[in-house]
Amino acid sequence: MNGDGGQFRDLSLVRLDAHNTLVIACDCSAGIGEKKFDEVLIDPAITAAYSVRVPLMELMCFGADPITIVDTIGNELQPTGERVIWGIRQELKKAGLSGLPLNGSTEDNMRTQTTSIGVTVVAKAHQINVASIHFSGAALVYQLGTPYVGEEVKKHLATIFSYDLVRKIRANDAVVDMLPVGSRGVRYELVQMAETHHAKIEAIADLSVPNKNQSAGPATVVLIAIKPIQQQQFEQAFPKLALIARLAVLDS
User: Fold this and answer.
1) How distant, in Å, are the alpha carbons of 2, 45, 89, 193, 213 from that of 84?
2) What is the pLDDT of residues 83-121, one digit of tens each?
């Protein structure tokens, strides 16, 4: 990745100058709320919190600092929109980002019967961060978290990992890449990580089991690639992470 702009995984990059790049991430949720035809019944404030969690995790793993947020709510302002906005603000507090400006829009012309929420987060990264996601030779890949989606997210709200833990992991000098897992599952995102680094996957865990292919919903899993030479210190620092694969860079 040369950092000149374009697309990197699910992120859009806009190079501002020789030192700074805008990094844009987004997510949406629909059918999860308290309206008549929602598939999962839950307070839309919780839906909103996990909708903003996804782009925040993507940006945090990339090394970009959020500077503004836009919500696009496909429902009326009162009461759904207000609950959504409250939920976003609560999640920003959890992430230590309560001072970020928040703008958006609601649908007040049409009566809606399912909950719909879109969130876009704009961030800024230094060119050093943009160019630093790479490794040579090999890397070990660990899994943080468990894939949850829908009702399973509701059941495990208290145990899903925190932003602070993700920050601590990213700050560890063994780490060379981090990638949140969403709706396509652990195995899919592991393939994406391997493709980024032109590497082949050598499985350590069984990647064919169902939970390696199921949705991880609102980023309830993060993949972490580290330098093999620092495996011992990394595992001592984060003993609960599961080693799932080795990536070996292909000869050019």
Assistant:
1) 37, 5, 9, 32, 30
2) 999 999 999 999 999 999 999 999 999 999 999 999 999
